[in-house]
Design goal:
The structure is a homohexamer of 278-residue chains.
Chain A (H helix, E strand, L loop, with lengths): L2 H15 L4 H6 L5 E8 L3 E2 L3 H11 L4 E4 L6 E2 L4 E8 H31 L6 E3 L9 H11 L12 E3 L1 H7 L2 H11 L6 E5 L2 H10 L3 E5 L3 H11 L4 E5 L7 H6 L4 E3 L2 H4 L6 E7 L2
Parallel strand pairs in A: 6-11, 7-8, 8-9, 9-10, 10-11
Antiparallel strand pairs in A: 1-5, 1-12, 2-4, 3-5
């Protein structure tokens, strides 16, 4: 497990438990054992099975875990996802934190799966964006992959994307791409965002590796794809609804990026049933 | 600013920028100044004005900020929320992180406001739950207050809530409440969750301060309110839609708690326009 | 174990050992095993048995521990509290840190026990205050419980206490309590500090849940208890010596809070005998 | 300010304030200014004037500070020590943490001063031990210096002290000292603890720089001082009361170390008067 | 300044100063001011001017800095690089840490400059590797840029490099490249390491973007360049001495990567002259 | 393992792996096991055997380790140092970090050994300085000991060294030493740096314990040793090459300190062979 995920779990538990669970610590004997069962309350692509084990293990390192599903599985409403046997106090204290993670991540994966299904078997990739919840990017991008899409860059450090602000600063698409070619690390491609056909031509001429068509309408995109003519990868972005996906794929674009996959997924419903061990 | 919020901002910037913004650092002179303007792209209750200042200040401690709105204000689509003057690199690097926070928090406050408006001037309080995004609870609960609702407990440490699992462990509602009364810190009230009228009677008899009616139907709730008869505060909880709020308020309950306020709010749309200073 | 306690142990070991124990590392072979025995050098309520295990385990994760007493036990002078078998270097390096914790915590519990014995079987609770050693509050409040008293609030976040400064800011006891009632989380009671009978009446009229009589003399307290007449819990506070406890309890107050339990306890004497394993 | 002191202040504020001061934040407007005055409630050697400034500055970086005394000054009961002007919320939130530090540190310095006065102008040094509160050693040893004594080693890393456990491991005083001489960093003296006259002779013969007479009675100490005869510094240690100090100094020892200076000092009384600025 | 650099400075100061500079604190009055001048004791490409300011500022936030050179400048022996005016204690405490950073980073830049000069104006890029000092990668790669070379990937996360171990696991060069093409983020190029002409052909056929010729001799490299024939970028690596650089460049390779730039640079000599201000 | 070493390993892994090894994670199945063998590519004093185990264990806590050599051993080119069996992903991710540590530390130890061999069996100690890599001091000083030399002070906190700057501030060698004698902790010796014979005499007269002859020529050193005449330890320092060591030892000095041991050691060559387990 990545060290920043470990810190995130720790701070999530700290914000919930703080100096102590005043209810549980006063009502439940620390030596008492229990069984906790996480169940899907609606159908979903589940994500967070091993994460939930990590969370409960922070509170009871000796907890026993019996997984019924893996991350990325489709789970029907009413199915058990994973079962824990361990300290009853640990189960009661960790329940909400474990569910908060799983509900959000499974919500993302479930939404992604519904998008991916629209363009199954077509030669186009669905990818996410950097519009993620602060502190959760690593996990949310993992959920996107579990849903069946790919990740765009993780952050500003592992991909070059020249946006309108950069273009304005450099004096034009061509100038920006050329300036970048002199300095860019040789393992990174150069992507540039274009808003019209003239900028598209400029990007091709300057040798951009990937061209992002930003907020163009269908006919502009069609023309842009023709202008680029396989000399660069084509990405489209900007307020793309699920119903438009197939139409975009038919245009011959290579990549469709959608912020809503992470920023507007709703949580799906999971619950944890906890009872004292007999 | 709370130290855990400072850490959250730092880790959000770290996850986005990592060892450096490879695009901006290669295209924009570090001495160049810029102007950044955050604008609402739809109507909303805005949250995060001073938080965005903190974020940009991490990257440029000397940035100048001109706020046009305060947290909790209703802002119409197209209105400017806040303007920054400072390092162009800092604006480009901090943009996404600032927007990711504001879009989520404003989304929560906007949803909360729409709920609160349903029960305006009625003697009932709308409150949130612990179903928050891991690591963001403090901020999400702040957004709830900006939307016009109140907070339930912050975590397991600042409020007593005896749930079904605790009741099962103690052998009944009465036993659980009585055991807690011997041990509870004298500044905390005792809330207990009940599932039927018998448990409600037991809770009243044992002297619970607050009684949560969990997933009861309307007629059960009506009976429970009558049974309690002002001897305890009454809270209702569980899958409550906006359209049912007024009906619940009419029953005479004191508190309505809704997880969806935080776990199923969608992000609202804000953008940051950045340009070089002339 | 709570994560802030883990950090406290780590920083305590760091401040004592720093880059290395220059004596032990030069004189004792790292592979050599040893036996360490913690013994009470005076009679006491012992606290820190499992904490000492955590401390030694930081230095030797494989150490074997044999406890002879539990936290809260009365231990006579000369009795063994706990025995460790493990790395001789680890025992020598951890000795002082383990003892520093135990001597202070056991000192608090022992003092608390002597206070509690004064009012045994009377319907009044002895509680601590926030006058704890910076960084050690969680542990010192644990020691108070092991001594037989209860905890007042852990900090400013889990209990409402309106003090003279707040009253002055709000314009009076009644105004402060009323303002708080509109905003207070519904799981917290409202306590207010009063200095005379007029303020006491105001507090009762405004509906305070708990009333703290601050530095009143006996006859004032008697009158205040009569005025309150069970309509709120009564707490007394301020320079209360052990010899006055019974007299206060006889007045019919519910809670007596005493800062000296934590801020003026002296350390009790424990030692650790360490010898090489044969 | 040392980075570990900064962390200590942060964690002390975190443990007291947590996610927020529920009383102050609901009753006091964040923009309201106030004046806070720290006053001695008994006569004392005051310690913590600049530390209290650091603490309040964590909460209000713009606070104005007016010191009336410096650390180490003798302050009479009723005198003002330092005055703050700043955010009223910051004063109310920081009050307890600032006082908790000052009361403990001033208590130590006041106790130390009373010991030092016993042996004023005599050729002997009073020093502390490692029996300090976990996490506070740096500050408590600072308080000892402010009281007028000197510090023994800060920790295990900046001084060599061969104790009975080490001697037993090495097979004798002579063997231990000789083994250490081969390996010790050349800037550190070698101190060895001895329990009787034979061990004292062995220590002198092996060339120890400092010899600690552990729990010897007066006549043994007299003989040991004579045996050592200025060939090493002489330190005495172990259950030394204030009344015995002069007698020990008369024996001709060089250093007297006393654990009670830090582990058994009681807190002295300081209060902070806070009122809204007019 | 990047947050991990800030942490590195803090830990470097902590490891040198620990609980205090026992010499300076006992000999120099804390209020005394001083002047510190950093001078080159040999000719070099200097790196660390602003870093040294950050270091001294940790100890005296009010220090005044007068830089005579910028990072990347050639400085002759005897020239002053930067001058500080501030707390004399801060200068004495920060001196060694500031110099330790500057000597190492300037040593790297100076070595890099001598390599770069060998292939000036030739169409080839000199780059570093991941063979950097643990904890210092960010700064050492910065020093490489200041010396005039470019950076290879920062770490395992921002560039794809398929090495012999990966090839062996996947069953061959072609299989590895093809498998990666299905999964690689679309903004990253695919580099593969080859050991002979057959593997080179396989890499070209599979469509690798960059091909690294690992430890080939001159004639093999010549053949490989011909085989690749501009269809991929060519990188050479492995025990490359400065004297062989021009010969390699003449072969038509695009990138030369050299671990020695960071792992075998010696420190250059800089000193800091400190004197009390008059 | 010291907690600051643990943090250093964590930050070294973080800087290399960041959010993930994009090559390995896409090409190697997480369940696949592998064998990694670290081999010396040149003859060396090896350091880092157990450190490399710690590093790989961070990534795979269950890895099995088979060491063939211990730290401080002389290893011939081609010999295997240590073998790991564990997760193939963990081996591939940890390889570079483990080697970066070992190459640097073994480089130091190998250089130190070659210096120590020059003065074998002579009554003089070779020691390091504080000219270490920021963040690595603890490990580099450990490597110095493994090479066969001793450590000078670890930092400013565990040894007194009065340098020219301090002398200038105090008004002379005698004044500085005398002032220090009043304040120095009684377990620390007092070392003072002298530049000429007059200062040497002053240092002896004032009773310095150790005298450092700074940048003196041979005849000056000879005179200084005679002047001191065993009344203090004699240390020489400043640009000392290996070839001059024996001559210095013959002069009768006690300690020779050399910054180059740590600041100018080159990395030695080690490699890790990794293959899938069959």
């Amino acid at each position: 497990m990545n060290s920043s995920v470990r810190q995130l779990i720790q701070s999530a538990l700290d914000e919930d438990i703080g100096p102590g669970d005043v209810t549980t610590e006063n009502l439940v004997d620390p030596d008492r054992m229990g069984i906790g069962t996480i169940m899907a309350k609606e159908s979903m692509v589940v994500v967070g099975v091993s994460l939930s084990r990590e969370i409960i293990s922070f509170l009871d390192p000796g907890v026993k875990v019996r997984p019924f599903h893996e991350d990325g599985h489709w789970v029907n409403s009413g199915e058990i996802v994973v079962e824990f046997q361990g300290s009853l106090q640990a189960l009661l204290k960790g329940e909400r934190t474990a569910l908060n993670f799983m509900q959000r991540l499974s919500g993302i994966a479930t939404l992604v799966r519904s998008y991916v299904n629209e363009i199954k078997d077509m030669p186009v990739h669905l990818v996410d964006t950097r519009k993620t919840t602060p502190g959760l990017r690593f996990l949310e991008k993992y959920a996107v992959r579990m849903g069946g899409a790919l990740n765009h860059r993780m952050g500003l450090y592992d991909g070059i994307l020249i946006k309108d602000n950069h273009i304005q600063t450099c004096g034009g698409v061509g100038q920006a791409v050329n300036r970048m070619k002199e300095k860019a690390p040789h393992l990174l491609k150069i992507e540039v965002e274009v808003a019209n056909i003239d900028q598209t031509k400029e990007a091709v001429a300057a040798g951009a590796d990937v061209i992002m068509l930003d907020n163009m309408n269908i006919s502009e995109m069609e023309e842009a794809v023709a202008v680029i003519n396989k000399r660069a990868l084509v990405e489209v972005s900007g307020n793309i609804s699920r119903s438009k996906l197939k139409q975009l794929a038919d245009l011959g674009v290579d990549i469709i990026s959608i912020g809503a996959l992470t920023h507007s997924a709703r949580s799906v419903d999971l619950s944890m049933n906890i009872k004292p061990a007999v």
